[in-house]
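Hey,

The postdoc asked me to send both predictions to you directly instead of through the lab channel. I've kept everything plain text so nothing gets mangled by the mail client. Protein one:
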Amino acid sequence: MASLSNGQEASVDKPANCPFQLFNQEVVWNGKWIQTRQVGFRTQTGQQGVWQSVHRNTKPAEAPADGVSIIARVRKQDKLFIVLVKQYRIPCGKLCLEFPAGLIDAGETAQQAAIRELKEETGYACKKVVMESKLCFLDPGLTDDSQCLVVIDIDGDAPENLNPIQLLDSTESIEVLLVEQSKLMSYISELDSSSIVVESTLLAYAMGIQFATI
């Protein structure tokens, strides 16, 4: 993945459907969790550019995606709630409201990772996995970081879910919230954006629910 030092171009195999000629692909920085890369590209009209990107170092080879996001629906006292988490995100410099989420470990399926991460981050036990999405990408202009969305149903009246206890890592600080699904968009709209931001997957879900009623 290195470029030639004598000024010549090192060609890169062209991926399917790629309209560009790629060359001089290299790792710019390699860290514990991520690496940054850059690659030169040439358009069909001869214009040249450089694309820089970020990639995780942690994805097991057989994993279906880097991680999972969990749409956890709690049925409790005849009401439907969505489980959300709030945590400080250092890259954003703010608190962030999100779906529970996490990386897929070696040997796990997306559904197994979702059940585990839900229990660890929120303390809630899964009743049933409703569906699993196809592989999707979070910010494809910047990174190949990928996830599967997993929808989980939770029995909020079950004894194990009356007082859920988180199983957090020593470096995690996560607040768990239950918001009625019918009030999710209004809850998000009333947040103070100067101190808290909303993860895009959650916002898209809330907007979808809102538009479905229009």
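Protein two:
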Amino acid sequence: MSSSPSCHQTSSSPSCHQTSSNPSCHQTSSQSFFSPDVIQSFLSPDIIPVLPVTRCHPVLPVTRCHPSPSCHKMSSQSFLSPDVIQFFLSPDVIQFFLSPDVIQTSSQSFLSPDVIPVLPVTRRHPSPSCHQTSSQSFLSPDVIPVLPVTRRHPSPACHRSKTTRFRWVQPAGFRSEDTWALRWVYLGDECDCSCTGRGRCDHGTCHCDKGWGGRACSEPLEPLPTLLSDSFSEAPQPHLWAAVNGAGISKKCGVLSSGNALHFTGGCTRQLITTDLDLRDAIFIQFTFRFGCVSAPHHRDSGVLIDFSTNGGTQWTKIVELFYDHYRNATFKIVAVPADAKKNGVRIRWWQPHHDGQSSGDWAIDTILIAGKAANPEEMRDGFDSQIRRYMWFEDNNARLGSFCGSAFTISGEAETDEDVTLTTADMHIKNGYILQFSISVGCHVSADSDIAPVHLQYSTDYGMTWHYLMQECLSFYPQCNGEMTVPSLYFSSSRWRRETLLLKGAVVSR
């Protein structure tokens, strides 16, 4: 059964999928440095050779694009023969004993639309350091996907065998609590889009996971969230995060944005994966990030990748890399949602493919927001009589709902040492003639000369990268003020509530 091209993520780089179209078994590549009997391609840093295969004696690598130049390096001790493929992955070894017809040569890469993964294999490290993870991890302390074996067409006659078998092996030496089990195994006709990673395949028919339907399990039965916001003031919640590995809530890195941050120090996998989101209208992914509060990374391959998946985490595509030698201080970061990720049922992942072990090359993240709309709302009103509405407020650091200064429904700041109190609206579309009106009380029943830090009213037109006072300070002799006199939008202590009404004009008005 052929799959729709829309079902799979393919690389935009032509070099990732180029194989020889000449049927001759002795055709060599322009990139080859060896005789016709052995072909070995030397690839650019973002193209990793995966599962080299045999073809009538010469070896023809099948390649795929990968965001990290070293995250799938094979040991120099590994070897290939027509019927044995080995991956040497420290601290143990995974072996695949396959007959020659299991792997076949094709002009398509493993990420091509017509190639369907079969029986993906996962393992857990036996290393004790892998179990020193936080209780907040939703999955086992470490789960590493190993590239699935794939098959597209019956192999040529020179590759066929009469029998093929598979096996799952956990090397001796594991602890009793590290045992494992299989729940479902299927080998047979492929299903549409491999059930989009959200169902199990059985004789070409998808049996969808809870909450999903359709022929390929690609249709959510309930609307998916269009926004994700988490300041990690408490443990990560399962309704927001599909996986949290190698991390825990901590202030060990200091204050990144406010309060706690999610700190990744685990000895094995370090990743953070969202649940499925509806990102058809999403614009940006923003967060505060820091490397190396305990031990800074020192290797090129120790960066953190931001990826997206449109098929339940079966395949991932890189959005951007956070380089290992940047972000040594808490840094606010905004990443645009790529066009290919603007779909319904998308997951976002932060993943560190390589590090040097427990607490080495650690990183922390705080105040994640995935949101934005192509057409921003033009109005908003909120009396704070119920929960904070995330579609109105992107950020409420150190703020809470409740009574204040005689009013039952307010949102007020909770003072924390060396931390800001911040309340940030969603992005709005501002028209000429609009006003901003609000009631504010600073201090409540205190004199105007009290030593209380003022509240600053600012605006941003670049997704929060830079901020400016809504009302600039102007004196009569300032040339840019045209003789007007205004005070900056700062609000000092007062003995009562006061209402402010500001006319929105100039740079704050949307284009």
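Summary for protein two, as requested: The mean pLDDT is 74.

Thanks,
C.
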